[in-house]
Amino acid sequence: MNIVVLLKQTPDTESVIRIAKDGRTVATEGIKWIINPYDEFAVEAALRLREQHSGQVTIVSWGPQRVVESVRTALAMGADSGVLIDDDALAESDSLGVARALAAAVKELAPDVILCGSRAVDYDLGQRGPMVADLLGLPHLALAVAIQSDGSKITVDRPIEGGKVTVEADLPAVVTLGGSHAVWNPRYASLPGIMKAKKKPLAMKKLVDLGLNPDDCGGGAAKIHITSLEMPAERAPGRIVNGGLDAAGKAKELVRLLHEEARLI
Amino acid sequence: MSKCVCVIGEFRAGNFRRVSFEAASEGRRVAQALGAKLCAIAVGSGVAEKAAELGDYGVDKLYVADDPALEYYVGATYVPLIADIIRKCDPALVILPASVDGKDLGARLAAQLQTGLAQDCTEIRVEAGVIKAKRPIFAGKCFAWCEWKGNAVPVISCRPNVMDCLVAGEGRKPEIETVAVSLPAANSRVIGLDVDTSGKVELTEAEIIVSGGRGMKGPENYAMIEELAKILGAAVGASRAAVDAGWRPHSDQVGQTGKVVNPNLYIAVGISGAIQHLAGMGSSKTIVAVNKDADAPIFSKADYGIVEDLFSFVPMFTEEVRILKSTCS
Questions:
Q1: For B301, which of A26, A126, A235 is closest by C-beta distance?
Q2: A250, A252, A253, A256: best mutation site toward chain B, by most B Cβ within 10 Å?
Q3: pLDDT at site B165
Q4: Contacts of A126 in chain B (CB under 8 A)
Q5: What is the layout of strands, in order, in the sheet containing B235-238?
Q6: Which of A94, A170, B18, B179 is deepest in the core (most CB within 10 A)?
Q7: What is the tens place of the pLDDT at every residue in B168-201?
Q8: Shortest CB distance from B149 goes to which of A165, A225, A262?
Q9: Contact B75 A258 (CB under 8 A)
């Protein structure tokens, strides 16, 4: 089974986010970069599929040279090879522009299964998987929390509001991963894995190498852009319910506050 | 028809989901700001007889596609059908719910229509005829204002529980167009549907959430949280620590890897308030925190803080709520 994982590098979820001087990007000084957790789940799911069906796992990513480290981490987890689309034209791309680049890279690899996170913990655009699927004319199964395949079809469980659906698609197909660390429990890179990863093939590509015109993927082609960022409104300072009350008194007082003041219960 | 605002409803198991009405209400407001008409798209099995409910939000024209094969959302069937309707009504913008299915639909529509999607928006503005959408990034640690370039048609999905629902019933009858459904050979299909009919409230759509964290000490202690939630008509949430420990299902997880929620009332019990949890619930309208550690970061977000041992406080609080509810009803 030939599997591709579309991987994005994002700031660590522990990061404090600050707005850069331009007012429309996030300041990246001091940021620790990680594999987007949902894409890490995708790497884990890909490795499990390969364990069952044998085959190859290829990581496809995009971004500047700092992304090499995240691709190498996925290789150290056990993926076989990587492709990094490092092209300055992608710096100002919108989702569709990035999806065009990824779709072109995926097409060259002709995979059976394409996996990626349902979202990334940075801009939470939620578009990479479904857009790549649409551009390649493939089915897309979203928000998988369990994946099974017999080699010709793929089946996923997917939570919906107030329930669960089981969806099946013919291969090739795109599956985007939901769930959490507790669901996927992605493996750590072992020391031998890290040593091996250094020698695994990692191809650097420009958009022209993928047969693309940078003008069709870059900022010039973007349909949507961010004009400004703003921090969430500061919450009014709260209060500690105290007043010399014991626990029972605080319970009574909290109910009173929620009922009479906040009018929520 | 002149330029319109086009809203897509979400119909499941015989009913429109509430997010449909939130999207329609926002559509109505934007249409008024633009001086445009409001179109709505209703797709589903048995949707024709309920379509008027969506029409009631001041819709001028309603497109109805009703077919048993549209019982549940599948991209392969829904996307081409809805994309065709959108091309026909040639809208100034498209608004849909940022539900589980809506996020997939929106992204695929944007690819089909070669345009840009702003996902999970919390506000839409029209300034001097220009459409702007505000959306959370980094799980709400920051917000981005987006605009569209040239003649790209904005596609905007609205976060559940944010947009105010207008009161339905303007008494206006929309023009109804029945859309012929011809389904392509689908390369994907639903093979199982398990909808919880217990009335459990979905986290992202809940008005009140009671959440438990590491301070709960074990899965058995969540009975306390569930009891309080039941009396309040609330959904139950959990921190990542509680989910990673296997105490609660992942579907309960609130935070940057998990669900971003914005209820009217969020009660955090035994949650210290790691930055990625605060990101997931920080936009809740009112926050209550119960924690015995007075220095816990959660108190910096809390409107009402209770520094007490949760095991003694929560049962007392539950009892007081019970008394209030019994005297009020």
A1: A235
A2: A250
A3: 86
A4: 103, 107, 119-120
A5: A239-240, B304-306, B286-290, B265-269, B208-212, B235-238
A6: A94
A7: 666 678 899 999 998 878 889 999 888 776 667 7
A8: A225
A9: no
Total domains in chain A come to: 2
The answer on A240 and A201 residing in a single domain is no
In total, the C-beta contacts within 8 angstroms joining chain A to chain B are: 281
Residues A262 and A216 in one domain: no
- Closest-CA residue of chain B to A251: B317
User: What's the complex ipTM?
Assistant: 0.93
List of chain B residues whose C-beta atoms are within 8 Å of the C-beta of residue A264: 208, 264-265, 286
Residue-wise pLDDT tens digits, B133-180: 999 999 889 999 999 999 999 999 999 989 988 876 666 788 999 999
A189, A243: one domain = no
Please give the residue range of the domain that contains residue A61: 2-221
Which SS3 state, helix, strand or coil, does residue B211 take? strand
Nearest Cα to Cα of residue A108 among A79, A85, A129: A85
**Digit-coded pLDDT (tens) for A174-207:** 999 999 999 999 999 999 999 999 999 999 999 9
Closest CB from B191, B257, B323 relative to A13 = B257
Distances, alpha carbon B269 to alpha carbons A92, B230, B293, B307, B311, in Å: 42, 15, 12, 11, 10
Contact B304 A242 (CB under 8 A): no
Q: Are A262 and B119 inside 8 Å of each other by CB?
A: no
Closest by Cα among B73, B264, B64, B75 to B164: B264
pLDDT confidence bin for B1, thresholds 50/70/90: very low
Asked if pLDDT for residue B70 goes beyond 60, the answer is: yes
pLDDT at residue B87 in the model: 95
Q: Give per-residue pLDDT as tens, B86-125.
A: 999 999 999 999 999 999 999 999 999 999 999 999 999 9
Query: How far is Cα A155 from Cα B189, in angstroms, rounded to an integer?
Result: 10
Round to whole Å and give the CA distance between A117 and B63. Answer: 33
Q: Tens digits of per-residue pLDDT, A62-88?
A: 999 999 999 999 999 999 999 999 999
Q: Which of A17, A98, A112, A124 to mutate to test the interface with B (most CBs of B within 10 A)?
A: A124
Pull the structure tokens for residue A142. 């979203």
Q: CB–CB of B112/B78 below 8 Å?
A: no
Nearest CA of chain A to the CA of B175: how many Å?
31
Contacts of A197 (CB under 8 A, 6+ apart): A72, A73, A75, A76, A189
Length of chain A: 265
Mean pLDDT of B233-251: 94
Do the Cβ atoms of A182 and B202 come within 8 Å? no
- What's the pLDDT at B199? 64
Chain B contact set for A155 (CB, 8 A): 191
Contacts of B138 in chain A (CB under 8 A): 11, 15, 17, 26, 121-124
Token digits of residue B201:
């409230």
Residue of B nearest to A135 (CA): B111
Does B230 lie at the interface with A, CB-CB under 8 angstroms? no
| Minimal-distance CA residue of chain B relative to A152 | B187
- Domains in chain B, start-ordered, CATH in brackets? 4-178 (3.40.50.620), 203-328 (3.40.50.1220)
Q: Is residue A228 part of a domain?
A: no
